[in-house]
């Protein structure tokens, strides 16, 4: 009995008497994990095993007690790591499913709430002017008020102002009484928020939104939990960046496809990688006919080899070439294009592609020629009119002189 701590408990409630009358028979010959109390009053986890020992006619009980604090700490660390990995895996899996952004953020909010044991989690995105934020996704328990699609002004919201200014997570353990949140105290009371963790979403070094965790009771967020939330925010930021890039790509692709100017992308070896529909209309060649080929089939013979060599010398040196080229269509007719050839570099500065943007100016040149001809005719008309006017003046003088001479003679003369 001297070796047994004064008090053991299971689930923080069993006292020494319970141990004496209940636990000891149940633990005989087994190992169990309990809590012991040290002399200074602190408690620590132990593993205890009891074994009967008979010596002559007496029966004793041997007790082996091990301090398993380090083991419990290691197990807790493993559980924490597993929880972090599970959360990150769920976020990565949702990202790989190519969901629309609202559904993806909704899944992230749900996983965050479950992992951090909070009743509510929300994602908000800022507008381009950084004047307001909109709650685009959330997870909440059934009895919690919804904030979905709520528009939050940024000017009077200190939490978002903090994110924009410090670009760091905002941790508030006593939201109703925190002076930093005085201007939104009504919103805090309405949502029942007691503790708050707000993580910024950053895309291309720009704050674009936030992930928020709301607790309705005092909830300290540890350094490890804040780091985990930041890791999730980084994954979400990456997905936002990818979504924006895809949207930009779709817009750019639509613009190129609908453009009236030919757009051709060449590989580093000058073979065609892409050609838009305008190229087909202007040249008569389909994209399938030119993909993987050079554009030598467009040469009209109007330019010598030196012309093309000079053009590519400029472009391969990393500069932009602009000029007019007379090309030949598939049907053999000629057409003139104003062409811009630009090199495209990768992140290391190496040229990996060339882009040709070409505008068919054949009709414009014909109209210009017609205008020049019209200007010539107009000038000739002005000259002719001037000569006729001067000649008419001379004739007028002659006619007047003839009239005066005729008056000097009889009408019958």
Please bin the fraction of helical residues: 40-55%
Strand content: 25-35%
With strands numbered from the N-terminus, the spatial order across the biggest sheet is 7-6-5-10-9-8
Order of helices and strands: EHEEEHHEEEHEHEEHEEHHHEEEH
Q: Roughly how many Å apart are the termini?
A: 174 Å
Short synopsis of the structure:
With 413 residues, the chain is α+β, with helices and mostly antiparallel strands. The chain has helices at residues 16-27, 69-96, 101-116, 158-166, 185-191, 223-258, 277-283, 287-290, 305-316, 362-406, and strands at residues 8-9, 31-37, 43-55, 58-67, 120-126, 132-140, 151-153, 170-172, 195-203, 206-215, 262-267, 272-275, 321-328, 334-345, 351-360.
List keywords for this structure.
413 residues; five-stranded antiparallel beta sheet; 10 helices; 27% strand; disordered N terminus
């Amino acid at each position: 009995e001297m070796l047994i701590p004064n008090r053991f408990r299971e689930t923080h409630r069993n006292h020494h008497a319970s141990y004496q009358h209940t636990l000891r028979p149940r633990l005989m010959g087994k190992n169990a994990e309990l809590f012991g109390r040290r002399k200074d009053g602190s408690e620590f986890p132990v593993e205890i095993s009891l074994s009967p020992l008979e010596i002559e006619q007496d029966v004793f009980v041997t007790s082996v007690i091990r301090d398993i604090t380090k083991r419990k700490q290691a197990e807790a660390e493993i559980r924490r790591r597993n929880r972090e990995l599970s959360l990150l895996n769920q976020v990565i899996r949702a990202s790989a499913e190519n969901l629309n952004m609202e559904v993806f953020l909704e899944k992230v909010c749900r996983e965050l709430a479950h992992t951090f044991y909070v009743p509510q989690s929300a994602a908000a995105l800022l507008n381009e002017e950084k004047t307001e934020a909109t709650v685009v996704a959330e997870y909440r328990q059934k009895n919690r008020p919804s904030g979905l699609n709520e528009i939050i002004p940024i000017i009077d919201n200190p939490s978002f102002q903090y994110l924009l200014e410090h670009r760091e997570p905002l941790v508030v353990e006593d939201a109703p009484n925190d002076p930093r949140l005085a201007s939104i105290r009504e919103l805090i009371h309405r949502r029942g928020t007691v503790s708050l963790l707000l993580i910024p979403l950053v895309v291309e070094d720009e704050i674009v939104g936030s992930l928020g965790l709301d607790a309705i009771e005092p909830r300290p967020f540890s350094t490890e939990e804040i780091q985990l939330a930041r890791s999730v925010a980084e994954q979400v930021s990456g997905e936002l960046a990818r979504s924006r890039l895809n949207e930009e790509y779709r817009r750019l692709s639509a613009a190129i496809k609908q453009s009236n100017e030919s757009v051709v992308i060449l590989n580093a070896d000058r073979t065609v990688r892409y050609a838009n529909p305008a190229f087909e209309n202007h040249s008569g060649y389909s994209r399938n006919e030119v993909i993987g080929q050079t554009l030598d089939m467009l040469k009209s013979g109007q330019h010598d080899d030196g012309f093309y060599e000079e053009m590519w010398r400029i472009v391969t040196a990393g500069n932009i070439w602009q000029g007019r080229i007379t090309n030949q269509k598939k049907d053999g007719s000629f057409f003139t294009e104003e062409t811009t050839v630009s090199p495209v570099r990768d992140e290391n500065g190496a040229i990996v592609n060339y882009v040709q943007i070409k505008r068919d100016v054949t009709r414009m040149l014909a109209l210009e020629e017609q205008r020049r001809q019209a200007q010539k005719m107009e000038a000739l008309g002005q000259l002719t009119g001037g000569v006729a006017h001067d000649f008419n003046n001379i004739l007028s003088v002659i006619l007047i002189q003839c009239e005066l001479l005729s008056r000097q003679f009889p009408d019958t003369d």
